[in-house]
Amino acid sequence: MGHHLNIRIFMKKMNMVNFLKAPDFARQENVPLGMFRELDATELYCPNCRKAVPVRKHLLCILPEGKKYEYRCVYCVEQVGTKTSSVQG
User: What is the pLDDT of residue 36?
Assistant: First the structure.
């Protein structure tokens, strides 16, 4: 449950990363490329509520590769997504 949603979110993030890595974007907007390395969701689709809803991010655990978070619907508390933040070294 939620695997297809996670894949769609991942694909949207990959498209956003590819867009932000474009040299024209950085030159036109004068934005450093590292500025958008970490993104947080504010709304995601909840299959229980059947609509896009505000979400809260909860820390699940700290792993060697980074911190693992889950996103939960503010209305029904259903898990609607996950995120692992990379370790900054």
Answer: 64
